[in-house]
């Protein structure tokens, strides 16, 4: 694992992320993220498995409840199913943010535990608002010749950890992420394209590769965040 001195030398700051120039190499980010994947798999996979089982249980319960109403009123069943699906999506945002925070902790050699995925419900309101608003803007961007949607999809990628780690409100976090990413948008876009390819490849052998690709992705997100904004509030 890297020393604290090396971490500091490969860390950005909030001021750098917004105004001053920062830089990184894609190979260095991938190399560090891969190194940090060792010993990181168990807590990440444990958290992801618990989240998946919890959301699946809620989803299954909503289907059973919808079927119960379906015997009397199909319209009510359809509305109820839609409400449950919306609630499941909304509930997943704080959990997803918790997994992202695991990557930030790993990026600065802090102890990581699977319970961290469930530790940030106090930020639920700004997280949910930011996630819904960003999704809406991205969707509108795709409707406007696609390219604006692709741009915003990458530009808002650090919104959730900025809300938690920098204690920002939802709009401040969205704009901070967008302004910072804009400096090296193509680099960051290429990083996540490569991660998407790695993820797809990891699915081929019965999904066994996800044991490595999922923790690697979480670690990479944390490393990239630290190199752009620095991490000083955890």
Low-confidence stretches: none
Number of domains: 1
What's the β-strand tally? 0
The SS-based structural class is mainly alpha
Outline of the structure:
With 234 residues, this protein is mainly α.
Describe this structure in words.
This protein has one domain (4-229). Helices cover 75% and strands 0% of the residues. It contains eleven helices and no strands. Helix 4 runs antiparallel to helix 5 and helix 5 crosses helix 11. The two termini are 19 Å apart.
Name a few traits of the molecule:
globular; mainly alpha; 75% helix
Write the layout of secondary structure elements.
Layout: H1 4-9, H2 14-18, H3 26-37, H4 41-70, H5 74-107, H6 124-143, H7 147-155, H8 159-165, H9 170-183, H10 185-203, H11 210-229
Helix pairs in contact: 3-11, 4-5, 5-6, 5-8, 5-11, 6-7, 6-9, 8-9, 10-11
């Amino acid at each position: 694992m890297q020393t604290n001195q090396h971490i500091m030398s490969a860390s950005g700051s909030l001021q750098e992320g917004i105004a001053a120039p920062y830089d990184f190499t894609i190979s260095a980010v991938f190399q560090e993220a891969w190194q940090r994947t060792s010993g990181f798999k168990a807590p990440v996979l444990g958290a992801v498995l618990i989240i998946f089982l919890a959301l699946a249980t809620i989803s299954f319960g909503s289907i059973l409840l919808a079927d119960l109403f379906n015997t009397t009123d199909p319209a009510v069943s359809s509305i109820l199913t839609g409400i449950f699906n919306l609630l499941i999506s909304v509930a997943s945002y704080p959990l997803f943010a918790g997994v992202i925070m695991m990557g930030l902790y790993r990026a600065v050699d802090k102890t990581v535990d699977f319970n961290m995925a469930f530790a940030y419900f106090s930020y639920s309101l700004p997280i949910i608002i930011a996630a819904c608003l960003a999704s809406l803007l991205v969707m509108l961007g795709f409707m406007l010749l696609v390219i604006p949607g692709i741009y915003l999809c990458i530009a808002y990628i650090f919104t959730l950890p900025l809300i938690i780690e920098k204690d920002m409100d939802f709009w401040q976090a969205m704009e901070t992420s967008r302004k910072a990413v804009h400096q090296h948008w193509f680099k960051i876009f290429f990083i996540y394209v490569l991660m998407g390819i790695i993820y797809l490849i990891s699915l081929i052998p019965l999904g066994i590769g996800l044991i490595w690709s999922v923790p690697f992705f979480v670690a990479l997100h944390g490393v990239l965040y630290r190199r752009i904004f620095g991490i000083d509030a955890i």
